[in-house]
Amino acid sequence: MIQVEKKENCIIISGHSLYDDYGRDIVCSAVSSIVITTINGILSINENAIKYDSKNGIKIQIVSQDNVTLKLIDNMILLLKELSDKYPKNIKIKEGV
Predict the structure, then answer these.
(1) Three-class secondary structure of residue 18 per DSSP
(2) pLDDT tens digit string along 5-31?
(3) CA 48 to CA 95: how far, in whole Å?
(4) Are β-strands 2-6 and 91-95 bridged in parallel, bridged antiparallel, or unpaired?
(5) Which pLDDT score, from 0 to 100, does residue 21 have?
(6) Domain count, the chain
(7) CB 62 within 8 A of CB 55
(8) How far is residue 56's CA from residue 21's CA, in Å, rounded to a whole number?
(9) Which pLDDT belongs to residue 23?
(10) What range does the domain containing 6 cover?
């Protein structure tokens, strides 16, 4: 299962959805697309707004509390929640952990 943990200034995405085999998993693909698009969008507007690490899953540290960064992060979480509603056995969102 993919775990998404949203804390005040940090988001950690880890695990595998186990919906299908690696390389064929539509849930993992959707999560990757949502998260990478969000990271790239934020960095294209303000390269200092976030820091991220993709060694073991993805960890996003929110450095700038500007309106655009926060809206893009909120949008990412909303999209992941919608995905979680459709695939509750494969992705779980935890907020305020």
Answers:
(1) coil
(2) 999 899 999 999 989 888 899 999 999
(3) 24
(4) parallel
(5) 86
(6) 1
(7) no
(8) 19
(9) 85
(10) 2-92
Distances (CA, A) of 82 to 56, 66, 73, 75, 88: 24, 25, 14, 11, 10
DSSP letters for 29-64 = HHHHHHHHHHHHHHHHH-TTSEEEE-SSSEEEEE--
0.85 surpassed by pTM: yes
What tokens does 38 get?
Answer: 């969000």
Task: Locate 1 and state its tokens.
Answer: 């299962």
Query: How far is it, in rounded angstroms, from Cα 45 to Cα 35?
Result: 16
Residues β-bridged to residue 78: none
97 inside domain: no
In a domain, 88, yes or no: yes
Q: What is the CA radius of gyration of the chain?
A: 13
Provide the CATH number for the domain around residue 6.
3.30.70.1490
Residue corresponding to tokens 């952990």? 97
> What pLDDT does residue 87 have?
97
Dig out the tokens for 89 from the structure: 């056995």
